[in-house]
Amino acid sequence: MKAAILSIGTELLFGQITNTNTVYLSRRLNMLGYDVMYHYTVGDNPDRVKEIVELALEDCDLVITTGGLGPTQDDLTKEMVCQVMGDELVMMDEVMEEISAYFEKLGRPMTDNNRKQALVPSRAKVFINGEGSAPGFALEKDGKYVICMPGPPREMTCMFEDSVMPYLQSMSEDVIYYRMLRAFGIGESDLETRLMDLIDAQTDPTLATYAKEGECSLRIASKRRDLSEAKAAVDDMIEKVDERVGEYIYSYDDEELVQVVCRKLMERGLTLSSAESCTGGRFAAAVTDIPGVSAIFDRGLVTYSNEAKMEELGVKRETLEKYGAVSEQTALEMAEGLKRVSGSDVCVSVTGIAGPGGATDTKPVGLVYIGLVYGDKKLCRRIQTGDDSRQWNRQYSLLSMLDMINRNVLS
Amino acid sequence: MKAAILSIGTELLFGQITNTNTVYLSRRLNMLGYDVMYHYTVGDNPDRVKEIVELALEDCDLVITTGGLGPTQDDLTKEMVCQVMGDELVMMDEVMEEISAYFEKLGRPMTDNNRKQALVPSRAKVFINGEGSAPGFALEKDGKYVICMPGPPREMTCMFEDSVMPYLQSMSEDVIYYRMLRAFGIGESDLETRLMDLIDAQTDPTLATYAKEGECSLRIASKRRDLSEAKAAVDDMIEKVDERVGEYIYSYDDEELVQVVCRKLMERGLTLSSAESCTGGRFAAAVTDIPGVSAIFDRGLVTYSNEAKMEELGVKRETLEKYGAVSEQTALEMAEGLKRVSGSDVCVSVTGIAGPGGATDTKPVGLVYIGLVYGDKKLCRRIQTGDDSRQWNRQYSLLSMLDMINRNVLS
């Protein structure tokens, strides 16, 4: 089945916002077994919406639109889709009730414009908007489908997960089951090489690898008549993948590394503190992005200057002078000092050369040391990122800190 | 002049990467006075590339493509564009020399595939790729233009800034001059309202406002026969804007707030430290994203727990018990304690309720206090974001900290 995605919104054509809806929908549609052929974007212009929907339906079985359903835009997107699909708009009472309930919950008055949002095509399968006022819908004609959803990402993704995905799945006699594995410490090409025969031989389940900012994902999907069959096929493939690259996999459920680490720490009631130099607070910021982490995260000391390392963490002046701030010795003294001041169960430290400046003859940009103190364990990991991008080096250092905790404390 | 942007790359259709090229090009083209009418994305498929280029040229005067020029994709994008524009590919010696020089610089051998990259349309204006091997080019037919650029964002943006922008400007007899102003502390609708008469009356210079994550941008552009005329018109408008909303504007050159603050601190040789609670290290991470900031940034203490606030910063237990961790008193004691331990010229602190949990009867999610100690000044700012998004509250708190330094230390 071929699919196209049409984003409607003048703000996209101005470059005011990044089109994350299309990324999300592309992933989901690919997972559901669709071939996404085209992405289109047009402004809030009915003629161009109509033109592109017609064009996309020539090639594709499914066209998903986002945006153009807001109260101030009247119902022109809906009207245009009706023209293309041979239907007409009608007021649906149950939709109106949902919209009224939404405004009641907000405690805001409903305007005439809002009432217009209850207009939907007479033959449509309507999707209620749990996060806003504009409903979405699906409309079929001659075996081809147009699905219209609101543009705000939160509204769109909730509607897709809750209503559109089950709808698309119900259209197929087959059931799709997939798992998304995440790995750290192995490059995408290395991962592919080790799984090449499985990837080459794939029919069902399918395997696909993705790379993203120092991490890899591996999607394993199966499409069968029966859910338990699909699950068994996926689990069987996961076992094979595990034999080859299991040591790098940190999640079998598409969880981010920082989520995995914080969840496990919270489950086990282990407290955490960090001492950062080159990452400059990124570790603490990533950890404290997780709601509820205050139960286990005590403090993060960003000791950027040598003075701060000595005063806050008790790193010895001799160590800094003899081995330098970027050294195994300094990393370990940072973690040990952090243990003294915080008393946290898990103390992690990092010092490195993020670049672009700061390199010496013996210490290149991208050299990073990570220290860890946990119980009796005192460990240090040396990394050479081989890259001169400050952003990349800081991001990779952050992931390495999390990986080191995951392997040495939580495995 | 109407423009369309065509992104070529199967990885975009899989949702593996976010299309940032289109955002960048949309902004630039709008600034240059083009109306961007369509965004299209297709995979690495010559027929669909040709189909969309032909389609886009029906409506538009300019089509910009990105991607599809890599060495492994042969020259199919180029071939397709030649077919549409009635030209043929030829080997250009000067392009070959540039590609050879690129590989020599990298110390890597050149393959036959790379040599193919020197094939360009015979009538093309060629743009050398300073960051990669694939050249770009512009091709004209009957007053309509197709411009092809490589897909990797760094290659594309460098080529656009260095070559394509001057080329587009040279096609016009007029010169475009613009300034991008950035503001904090005023909402986009409030900004628009205060400037409404100027926006409504605009012919040249033009005014446009944009909102982004708690900040606003204001673009003022003028298109004239003469650069000095355009500059004078823009400067004159800036003066009018300044009279209305000058107090909110922190940059007249599209600099981010964190860049403005760090640049000024570095220029003045003022040292900085931070003590964070609800932002959890975001401030330190943002500041240390700036290369060279180690000259002035001493330390950042993320005192997440009450113990950390007392031990690291000397916040009094009575203060925490009487007023709570989220209070003016605690924010000030954090900044004062930070001054004692760091001795930095500028000491900033933050404590608040980021959400989603943590609210009490008197302290709602989104309540944030920022403390500042600078010389004899001891200041505290109370913020009520009115939002329950953790991400937003943390981001807004970060910007408020920077704004407080900018206003009270650097103005």
Shape of chain A: elongated
How many strand units of chain A? 17
Assembly of the depicted chains: homodimer
Biggest β-sheet strands, sense, barrel of chain A: 6 strands, mixed
Which value, in Å, is the CA radius of gyration of chain A? 26 Å
Ranges of chain A where pLDDT stays below 50 over 5 or more residues in a row are none
Q: Label the structural class of chain A.
A: alpha/beta
Number of helices of chain A: 15
Secondary structure: helix percent of chain A: 40-55%
Q: Please report which band the strand proportion of chain A falls in: under 5%, 5-15%, 15-25%, 25-35%, 35-45% or over 45%.
A: 25-35%
Mean pLDDT of chain A: 92
The chain pair forming the largest interface, with residue counts per chain, is: A-B, 67 and 68 residues
Describe it for me?
The structure is a homodimer of 411-residue chains. With 411 residues, chain A is α/β, with parallel strands linked by helices. Chain A has 15 helices and 17 strands. Chain A has helices spanning 10-13, 20-31, 46-59, 76-85, 93-106, 112-116, 153-171, 188-200, 227-245, 257-268, 282-287, 306-313, 317-323, 328-342, 390-408, and strands at 2-8, 35-42, 62-66, 89-91, 119-121, 125-127, 136-141, 144-149, 175-184, 206-212, 215-224, 249-251, 272-276, 297-303, 346-352, 367-374, 377-384. In chain A, the strands form 4 sheets. Chain A has a 6-stranded mixed beta sheet, with helices on both faces. In chain A, β10 (206-212) and β11 form a beta hairpin. In chain A, α2 (20-31) runs parallel beside α7 (153-171), α3 (46-59) packs parallel to α4 and α10 packs parallel to α15. The longest helix of chain A is centred in the middle third of the chain and has 19 residues, at 153-171. The mean pLDDT of chain A is 92. Chains A and B meet through α2, β2, α11, β14 and α12 of A and α2, β2, β10, α12 and β14 of B. β14 (297-303) of chain A pairs antiparallel with β14 (297-303) of chain B, so a sheet runs across the interface.
